[in-house]
Amino acid sequence: MGGVEQVISQIARGSNKLGVKTDVLSLTQAHVPRTIEMDGYLAHRARLNVQIASTGISASVFLRFAGLAKQADVIHYHFPWPLMDLVHFASRVKKPTVLTYHSDIIRQKHLLKIYRPLKWRFLADMRRIVATSPNYLASSTVLAKFANKVSVIPIGLDKASYPFPSAEKLHYWRGRVGAKFYLFVGVLRYYKGLHILLEAAQGTDYPIVIVGAGPIEAELKARALKLGLRHIHFLGFVPDEDKVALLTMCYGVLFPSHLRSEAFGISLLEGAMYGKPMISSEIGTGTTFINIQNQTGLVVPPSDYLALRKAMKYLWEHPAEAREMGRLAEARYWKHFTADQMVRSYFDLYSELLSLPPA
Question: In the CATH hierarchy, which fold is given to the domain comprising 3-158+339-355?
Fold first, then answer.
């Protein structure tokens, strides 16, 4: 699961406990059953036919959606996914709608010109829009146009749903990567700023563990090899227990994303949940709602490898301050970012939508 998928799963699983029956519709390339039960909700999959500019396209999703929409009291969209804009209008939905706005569209500037009229119409048709942080609401020119119907519900995680790593697993990773290291977790994409991290790692000997796979993995490995960065460990995809073991053991969490495509930062929040000091970049998104400068960690300018290197050096050489930042990070998680808080907020929003007169 990526970040958005994890959020949807947390909402569906948690709201089920409050009596909400949830159906989740997504696309798949795999030969799997059309519908399965997962953690108290139904996951429906339509066939992915083609992917254009990171947008999944499916012919069968129109009928699947129309059938599910007839049964629903509330329809909850997750943006951006332009196909759903088309599906929404083609299905002539007359149910209360809410949309979670995960991110502005950053990279596809030319296609955005074509899509923009549909996007504005789709967002205008929503009864409520949810931003995942006050930072993103304040910095998004798109959300500013709909401020009268936008509320903020921070993404939350359920720590109890994460596996507890065995002593054997902890021992294995301690032997492989050492007892003190920085950790990055995430899909290896262009906006994650990992090329900046490699530049920052030059001239240092801090072990850095990179967990995750993705489209730029080979490029990053080649760059690290060329720079002679033998203290960088690329682990690729690891199972959840291994990821939690590394989160439990790491000295601090690195999150160098440098573009607004990084709208929140689920793995940054995981670092806070496990009481780790964090280093992130100020990009006007939810990352700086999670990580507060000089409180839960350090925040540096985006794309500034020298500032990132300086922040890594400071935390490494000040363990007492790093521990205190980690303690405050975990306290902030429990105050603002639990799954229970997120689910309860969505439950209240669903209830409010059902009480409104028809649009």
Answer: Rossmann fold (3.40.50)
